[in-house]
Amino acid sequence: MAIARLYQITNTLLSFGLDEFIPAKKRPWFARVARSSLFWMANKHADKPLGVRLRLALQTLGPVWVKFGQMLSTRRDLLPLEVAQELALLQDKVAPFDGVQAQKLIENALQIKDISELFSEFEQTPLASASIAQVHTATLVDKGQENEVVIKVIRPDIEQQITADLALMAQFARLLVRLFKSSRRLRPVEVVKEYKKTLLDELDLMREAANAIQLKRNFTDSESLYIPEVFSDYSRTNVLVMERIYGIPVSDTDALLAQGTNMKLLAERGVEVFFTQVFRDSFFHADMHPGNIFVSRDTPHNPQYIGIDCGIVGTLNKEDKRYLAENFIAFFNRDYRQVAQLHVDSGWVPADTCVEEFEFAIRTVCEPIFNKPLAEISFGHVLVNLFNTARRFNMEVQPQLVLLQKTLLYVEGLGRQLYPQLDLWQTAKPFLEQWVKEQVGPWSVLKQLYANLPFWAEKMPEMPDLIYQNLKRNNRQLSSVKEKSDAKPILLGMLACTSLICASLSYLAHEWLVSGLTLSASVVLFISAWRKIG
């Protein structure tokens, strides 16, 4: 079976002439001989551009390869632009599998004898069908109430097919690197590894359910984004039950205009939702292509997005968020020195990188872009150019930033489609500047102190013993020194910190007088310690 599939894949790739991705002069002699010996697999589509041939070949190979092409279309740092654009046309729609079989899968997953035990209605004809799963409509009877739902079911035996194809992909990637050194720049082994993780994650619908629940909680009562409710009690690894929504596909601009949708506000809210997810929540929907985004039919003058299919999400840690926001702001201000320095400080490029050379390279790439009006500049493409430049300086692939780049390209493309005059820079800049201020201002310090209060409250009873032990140790260390009074600043500083913690705890307990007194004592002690040091 594996040999037959390998033959089929090889035949397809060569029949579409995909060996031309490697220039003839870069191919070793044995590779040329091997290609010539497979004369019956000659290129049958020589009249088509290479990007078109790649897209057609992936469609021929099936769903696993289609999704691989979709993922590659977001890696514009690895492929020529025209090839990436062609891959973006890949559609995930495939023929559905039998509805009776889908019903049986649902019954087995939920451990029921008949679908009618939980669902008063079930439509065996699928509402939609994709490479990994298909969706059926139903009416769930939950606690005596009827709820219109959709049931997502993983295709039968898809995991075995995916595992087999992924193994062959990995072998192809390793062989490519071994035979053609020039292919290392494309990092085929790493790309396949990244794809494998993404695809296997999509097979676990409980992961998708958890992601949807988190996103829904993040946007509770939001006018900008609605996430359908997940019925987790009736969801399993291969079955997901969630609220059915009735919205207009975001790509159907004619329908949106016909109902009088405020397109400018809708486009701006797309930007707002993206930056809120990234910088406020550090948890963002990373598959926001038009097929997963709808617009509510309610209140078209105050439009609301509806997001589905939360199988792929991205996260950023605190450091990445700060560096990314400061990078964007530095770009707004065309401060390329700051951009270069931030890349070094964040560890995205090696510490020994020459900042001056890096700054010059960034300026060379980005300055021509800024000759256009801001409204015409692609935010996403600036990010792509930045990462491409950084890779010349040995920037390591940052998976979280790749997902972010992909999502930003989706969001920007969507915004420009809805409202071509959208100035994404002008929309995003105030948001980012405010976020940075909040991270470095006095309120940020108070928030961090507040977040650590449970820890300090737990340690407070131990504080006298710790102070006593530390003073004892200091006295022993200072016994050989002439003036033991040097320990006084340490004592005063520790007492000042203790008073500050007591003041914070008293404030939370609404003991205003105690809080004020201990805060005053803390200030006095800090000043005294400072004078002793002086």
TrEMBL record:
InterPro entries: ABC1_dom, Kinase-like_dom_sf, UbiB, UbiB_bact, UbiB_kinase. Its EC number is 2.7.-.-. The active site is at D287. GO terms for biological process: regulation of ubiquinone biosynthetic process; ubiquinone biosynthetic process. Pathway: Cofactor biosynthesis; ubiquinone biosynthesis [regulation]. ATP binds at L127, A128, S129, A130, S131, I132, A133, Q134, V135, K152. Residues 90-342 form the ABC1 atypical kinase-like domain. It holds the Pfam family ABC1. One of its GO terms (cellular component) is plasma membrane. Keywords: ATP-binding, Cell inner membrane, Cell membrane, Kinase, Membrane, Nucleotide-binding, Transferase, Transmembrane, Transmembrane helix, Ubiquinone, Ubiquinone biosynthesis. One of its GO terms (molecular function) is ATP binding. NCBIfam families: PRK04750.1, UbiB. Belongs to the ABC1 family. UbiB subfamily. Belongs to the protein kinase superfamily. ADCK protein kinase family. Is probably a protein kinase regulator of UbiI activity which is involved in aerobic coenzyme Q (ubiquinone) biosynthesis. This is Probable protein kinase UbiB. It comes from Pseudoalteromonas caenipelagi.
